[in-house]
Design a protein that fits this description.
The complex is a heterodimer of chains A (about 110) and B (about 120). By secondary structure, chain A is mainly β. Chain A has no helices and 11 strands. Chain A is globular, with a radius of gyration of 13 Å. Classes of the chains: A mainly beta (about 110), B mainly beta (about 120).
Chain lengths: ~110, ~120
Amino acid sequence: AQRVTQPEKLLSVFKGAPVELKCNYSYSGSPELFWYVQYSRQRLQLLLRHISRESIKGFTADLNKGETSFHLKKPFAQEEDSAMYYCALSGNTPLVFGKGTRLSVIA
Amino acid sequence: GAGVSQSPSNKVTEKGKDVELRCDPISGHTALYWYRQSLGQGLEFLIYFQGNSAPDKSGLPSDRFSAERTGGSVSTLTIQRTQQEDSAVYLCASSLSIQGAFAPLHFGNGTRLTVT
């Protein structure tokens, strides 16, 4: 079965501090991993995907198959990063989402 | 271009009533999904449609829930005999294919359903 675990419901950091949003997954095959973000009063949108190996808004995420993790990182948090973040897995079924982590960046 | 459009944006209904939620996907997107977003539960998959294939209904929580997609475009999610636990934001998304890194989901703004 496919499963995505985001252990933190809420993460608060100070502006300028590093951020790491944790995501672990369970899938026996070769997964596609994504991070989606929902800013206040906006629709849910794709932030980044592991296959692109890109950095979006300063965020990066590396797929670690040994640890079955896809943690989202940013070296210096900004206030505008405050949002709800969802990790998602695409395997052999439609996209499965974690329960989300609310990131709050404190000025 | 226009994104995924959902209507109504808000719906308040009495327990026991039926409701219909509508989704207009992005033109040309072959895949359409319904998810339910509730506090503490994240995004719960409900159903998806891919082209003319039979829909995957594996996420529907009960037989009170059903969905249709007419002409490969507009979709309607119907909840019969609504219960208070059905209160949530219902999100629709579309994509160019059902899975894969080259097919990100595009979400609508959702319909907030409140069952009183």
